[in-house]
From TrEMBL, chain A:
SUPFAM superfamilies assigned: ISP domain (SSF50022)
Annotated PROSITE patterns: RIESKE (PS51296)
Keyword terms of this UniProt record: 2Fe-2S, Iron, Iron-sulfur, Metal-binding
Top-level taxon in the UniProt lineage: Bacteria
Entry keyword S-adenosyl-L-methionine: no
GO molecular function: 2 iron, 2 sulfur cluster binding; metal ion binding
UniProt cross-references to PANTHER family, sorted A to Z: 3-PHENYLPROPIONATE_CINNAMIC ACID DIOXYGENASE FERREDOXIN SUBUNIT (PTHR21496:SF23), FERREDOXIN-RELATED (PTHR21496)
Annotated ranges, domain Rieske: 4-115
Database matches in InterPro entries: Rieske_2Fe-2S (IPR017941), Rieske_2Fe-2S_sf (IPR036922)
The protein's name: Rieske (2Fe-2S) protein
TrEMBL record, chain B:
PANTHER family reported in the protein's UniProt record: 2-AMINO-3-CARBOXYLMUCONATE-6-SEMIALDEHYDE DECARBOXYLASE, ISO-OROTATE DECARBOXYLASE (EUROFUNG)
Gene Ontology MF term list: carboxy-lyase activity; hydrolase activity
InterPro entries: ACMSD (IPR032465), Amidohydro-rel (IPR006680), Metal_Hydrolase (IPR032466)
The protein, known as: Amidohydrolase
Chain spans, region Disordered: 62-84
Keyword line: Lyase
Cellular component, GO annotation: cytoplasm
Domain (Amidohydrolase-related) ranges: 21-369
Biological process according to GO: secondary metabolic process
Keyword Transferase: no
UniProt KW Kinase keyword: no
Amino acid sequence: MAKHVVAAVGEIPPGGRKLVTIRGREIGVFNLDGAFYALVNRCPHQGAALCTGAVVSRLEAPLPGEYRLAQAGAMLRCPWHCWEFDIRTGQSWCDPNDIKARTYNVSVEPGEALAKGPFAAETVSVAVEQEYVVVEL
Amino acid sequence: MNVTLRDHRIDNPAQSHLGFIDCDVHPFYRSPADFDPFLSERWREHRRSIGHRSRQGLARTSLYPRMSPGNGMRGDAWPKDGSPPGSDLELMREQLLDLFDVRYGLLAPLVGGAAAERNVEFGAAMAVAVNEWQCAKFCDPEPRLKASVQITLEHEESALAEIEQRAGDARFAQVNIPPRGLEPLGRHRYRKILAASAAAGFPISLHLGGTSGHASTGGGWPSFYHEEHPSYVQSMQTLVTSLVCEGVFEEIPDLKVVLVEGGFAWLPALAWRLDKHWKRLRAEVPQLKRAPSEYIREHFWVSTQPIEEPERPADMLSIIEWIGPERVMFSTDYPHWDQDDPRYAFKVKLPEDWARMIYRENAQALYRLD
Ligand code: FES
C-alpha cells in the first residue's frame, strides 16, 4: 500500500471532485464539506465511469408525500442506470448488503510531512507550506 | 437455509459477445431541421410553422420525464460539441461499433414523430423523411448499421407504398411499428400492413415506448415513470395477445415479430395463461388452429435489453429455455441511459451455443445477414 498525492487541498473545493489515475486505476476524489473521499471510477453494476455521475442528495420519504433531503450531496448517481452510491462508504442505496463500489483511504497531510516521504506524487508537486490530499493504494 | 449470492461478474468480463449483432441502436438528429432535405416544401413549411401534433397532448417533452438529461440519455454519450447522443456517428463507432466489434447494428429511430402524428399525412411524410435520413446519415456512411422502415399505421396507403419501396433494399432490415397504437395490432384494419411487411421479407419490430393518447395502463394514468415503465410491457403483452387471438399468424404464416426492449421473462407466463384459456374458450376463437404458445414460439423474437436481473442469476437460464434460446437476441439500446454493456449484462454464464445464438446467430438468420 503506497500513498499517492493527488491534489493540493484547495484544488478540490467542497462539492467538487477530481478524477485521477493511480497505477493505471481511475479514481474519483470527492470533497464533501471539507472531508475527502475516494472511489473507483467503475460502477459495480455494468462498469460505467461511476465518478463522472451526478452528485445528489439522499432523498427520503418517511411517508408518501413527505419528503426530506438527507445528507446533501453525499450520493453519487451512476451515469448509466442511475444506481446511487454513498460517496463516503461506496455503499449502494438499493442493495446496501450486497453491492459496494470500491473505496480508498484518503487523508490530508501537510506538505512538510510529505516532503520527508515516502510517497508518490506523480503529477502533483509538493510545497512544504501547503496541505495535500493523499490516497492510499 | 438458502442464501442468495449475487454473482458479480464485473471483474470477469464475458468475451462471447465479440462480433455481436446489436438489435437496438438509436440514431438521433442534431437538429429537427435535419429532416428538411427529405421533406417537400409543403411539409417543410408545415414542420416549421405548425409543427408536430402528437397524440399525447404535450410538445417537446415526454409524459414522464426521465432521470437522465436529454430525456433519458446515457450520461457519457454526449458528443463534445453538445449535440444530442446518437447524433454523432464517430462517437457511436467509438462507444459501440468499434469498441465491441459490432457486426451489425439495427437502427430504431425514435425520432420524427411519424407514428404518433395526428395529421397522418404529415406523419406519412415524416416517415419517408426519417427513412431517407437513416440512410443518408447512418447506413450509407456506415454499412454495419441497418435501417428500420418507419411507417404511419393510421395511413395505410402510404405505409404500404413505403414498405414496397424499401423491399429488397439491403439497407433496411425490418419495419418499425409502435406498440402503443389506437387499436391492438391484430385488429383487421392493420392486416394489410402486416401482410405487406411479411411479403417484403421484413420482420416487424415493436420497440417499446411511444404514446397512443390512451391512458398508458388499463387502470388509468400512472403517477411516476417508475410505474410507466412496466406499463410499456403491458402494451407489449396486449399486442402479443391480440396478434395471436385474431388469428393473424393463420392468415400470414410468414409474419415475424420482434419485441424490442419490452423484457421477456413475462412471455412464458403469458403463453401458459393463453393456453389455459384457449382450452376453455376455443369455441370463441375458432381461427386458432393451435395452442397460443405454439404461435408465440414460432413467430416472436425478443431482444434482451433492459436485461432481466433475477435475484438468483441462474434463473435467467430457465427463462431463456422456456422462450427458446433461438428466439432471444442481444441488444444494447445505445445511447440510452438504461443501455446494457454486452460484457456484463448477463450475470450468469450462458452455455457456449446459447451465447452464439443470442449474440449473433439468431439475428443473422432472422434478418438474413451474413
Ligand atoms: S453501470 Fe452503473 S448503474 Fe449500471
